[in-house]
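Lab manual, section 2.4: Encoding a predicted structure.

Procedure: take the sequence of the chain (243 residues), apply the prediction step described in section 2.3, and record the output as structure tokens. A sample record is shown.
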Amino acid sequence: MAERTTLAAVIAVLGVFIILFGLGYIQLPGPGGGGGGGGTTTTTSPLAQATLRITAKDVQGNVLTQAPIYVDGQLRGSGTVTVQVQPYTQHTVRFGDVPGYYTPPEQRFEPWPGQTIEIVGVYYSQQVPATYLLTVYVQECNRENLCNPYPNVDVRLDDGQKGRTGVDGKVVFRVTPGRYVVTVTLANGWTQQQTVDIWQDTQTTVTIRTSGLSIIGISDTSLLALAVFLAVVLAALFWRRRR
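Recorded output:
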């Protein structure tokens, strides 16, 4: 009896450890991290930081080196920058004004631990007759057609612009009149495309259909509590079967 109880407890603890590791609350030392010195630098955050790769380009795809790039209100460089930020926190990327060009809209999003996000803003010359704002709204809908905003999703246009949906499921691009292909890519690599014609400020909705229960809108704390509960239940079931 005591051995079965101990084994069940070990399984529960191991399950919780794996869950904490997957969520980034527990990090193992990197190569060379032990011993008397020369190890890798560790972060003070309990969660792995996210990486933002931000680039300002013109319509030809060239890096606009004079374009200021701000992250959370701080100037981090011009043209192209790479910044590490805290996960599960809303961050704002803003492109500064460049004479003779229209400025791309700012973007707000909440990255996940260890995630790399690529943001590309395209500066259109003010010599073009007009530009409009294209708002891409990504939502997730289940079989009962219950829908929620889909945050932290990669969204790309075929003119080279790249963005990430915020907690409201939206990302905004500045474009010229014409037809655009919107490509949405989920974290697992699954993609969905949609074509939209622009002749005025426009919002287009991309709907992701799911066959089961969605976790959209569940915080990491709630997910962690659910995972711990499931680990305890599995341990109890295992112990009962062994009786």
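Check your result against the sample. The first helix runs from residue 2 to 23.
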